Amino acid sequence: MTKKINNLPLKHKLLAIMLIGLSIMAVMSFLIIQILSSSYNQMLYQSISESLSYSAKEITDYLDKMENLTQLFLSDTKVQQELQNLKKAYENQEGHLNALNKVSSYTGDYYYNYSDGILKYINLYTPASVIKTNLISADKVPESIQQEILAQSDEKDGAPCWVDTYMDEYGLFLARNIRQIEMLKLDTLGTILINIDMNALVKASTKFENQYGETAYLIRANGKTLYHTENLSDENTARFNPETIDKYSIEQVGDRMYFISHGMIEEYGWDYYCLVSYEEIDEKLTGIRSVCFWIIILDFLAVIFITVRLVGKLVFHISSLKDRMHQFALDNTQVPETAYNYAERKDELGLLNQQFDEMSRTIIALIQENYVNELLKKEAQLRALENQINPHFLYNTLDSIKWRAKSVGEKDITDMVESLSVLLRASLRTKDEKDYTVGREMEIVSSYITIQKLRYEERLLFENSIEESWYPYIIPKLVIQPLLENAIFYGVEQNVEECHIILSGEQKDGVLHFYVKNTGSEIEDDLLEKLETEEIKPQGHGVGLLNIHKRVRIQYGEAYGLKLYNEGDYAVAELLIPAEKNDVEINHC
Fold this sequence. Notes:
By secondary structure, the chain is of the alpha+beta class. 54% of the residues lie in helices and 18% in strands. Helix 13 (392-407) crosses helix 15 and helix 16 packs antiparallel against helix 18 (541-556).
């Protein structure tokens, strides 16, 4: 009987343990409910955060609209003209009623064009009089507050002056001095004062419906409450402590529990808070958790006995296969052993174990076969790339020697020949140099630059900022000199103007960054990618750049190699190589 059961298809076994699935589903349901319950606050925060972001943007857009209103008003030619006429008439003690009536009419037109239930009134303060578009609302603001706002506006010299000090009681104020534009005299012609109803603005800008219960909003700045909606009392607002709130928090405000979400109206430096009543939410969550908990417990107790009986043996074989896979992942040189003989099993578990053994043996054979081949392939690639020598520089050097022999004295020729001998020794050496260092590369760079400066004289300005502390670091042979050669070719040979070349480096996070910068040329976008894909056929110096890039990436990995870009007036070649020092101290001339 045991043998027959063992050989049954896995599908039949799964049907036999269907009740166990119910238990698992019950446990998963409990976990899901717990997760949903614990993440509900985050979901609520995201929902409210979207509302706050929308509301903050709407508020900012509306305030920008009010600034634009003042800009249109103060730049209106008719307003400018009548304000000038009003000022002259008032100063000369002549009749100014006509100009005053016109300015009053223009002010009223702007008010009615922008009146939307949020803009409460527009006041225009002139030397002759104060024009008020909503007398009842404007007179509610004490004269002392108006004068304080006008004084702050004078300090702004014509720029918008937002006053939020009295936002909760009288609304938000925007004041702006009107300067004379004609002949750029910039004399003060008057001051426009706009008052915004914050309750109406917040209500119009909030799309967050009260689906979670009562919702309130609050604005603070510099540790003070500037505004709160009417459903928050001043007493409760005074008890509100936002210092502990980063994104969201559940806080007791007065006699009620609130879910508080924090946002910003950054342009004006305001902290923006949304408060949602949390009491009803908490009651619903607690009831749901309790009911689900008891259902899951009863379901689990009902099926636990069957789970132990039917799943035990099946889980044993699955766990055994999992352990063997883990062992093979740690050591892929041999097939993991098992005490159970799966060769006689005909069901899915037996076939899985048999195929796992076969797969393990195949993988071991493939690893042993391909490992050596991959090493040989990479070594061949490195040698092939290192042996690509561009004769262009050698020809130019010989030509330079002949040229200098005819035009200068013996010392220059001696320096050039000595430098050339150093270059030839380094370039033509075929021995594999695994201890090649920055110091040895700097010897080649020095010799190369000596030759090129003799050739180009004052047209070539070279600056080397590589410090001697870098000299022990190991790098591939001839990866910096070709970059300088490329810079000279495109910065000097292709131009008649002076070329400035800078060689510098910095070490970041265990990586050496070499920079070769030159003036007089510009690097095409995505040049390396185009060379690799042969969108641009590599030739001449393009072969050298691609050669360096491939050599470094083959030797160190995909994170290293060349980067080509432009930086200001410089074309930049950046070379990334891991920082690895040579243990043997080498002296460099």
